[in-house]
């Protein structure tokens, strides 16, 4: 879990309302002071990040428009300080390799307390 307890901003990017709600609910249960905001597609995510850079971001891969990995690449190329994890039910090796190339990790869906714990651990321990 993140070492400092200051207020953090988390952007949740997923076209599934249920996935966004689960991620938000699990994280706010542990960090109620965090500010969360959501995007349903890559284009919205990029626009939100350009307005207000989050500390953390969770990103789905399969969304309408720009894929999550392409969105992550665009965001991280402009804002490398953002700690980003990719959530996807599609855990093929090509997606895992792409996540590694982007300097992030791929966490398998479904979104659960355990998968959220992996994301929080990554946020706390990634450079």
Q: DSSP strand (E) fraction? A: 15-25%
Helical percentage: 40-55%
Reported by name, the CATH topology is Rossmann fold
CA radius of gyration: 13 Å
Poorly predicted parts: none
- What is the string of SSEs from the N terminus onward? EHEHEHEHEH
Number of extended strands: 5
Level-2 CATH architecture:
3-Layer(aba) Sandwich
What do we call the CATH homologous superfamily?
Answer: Response regulator
Class by SSE composition: alpha/beta
- Side by side, the strands of the main sheet go 2-1-3-4-5
Identify the overall geometry. globular
How does the major sheet shape up?
A: 5 strands, parallel
Give the mean pLDDT: 92
The N- to C-terminal Cα distance equals: 14 Å
What would CATH call the class? Alpha Beta
How many helical stretches? 5
| Number of domain modules | 1
Structure description:
The protein is an alpha/beta fold and 127 residues long. The chain has a single domain (9-125), classed as Rossmann fold (3-Layer(aba) Sandwich). 45% of the residues lie in helices and 20% in strands. The chain has five helices and five strands, in the order βαβαβαβαβα. It has a five-stranded parallel beta sheet, with helices on both faces. Strand 3, helix 3 and strand 4 form a beta-alpha-beta unit. The longest helix has 14 residues, at 17-30. It is globular. The two termini are 14 Å apart. The mean pLDDT is 92.
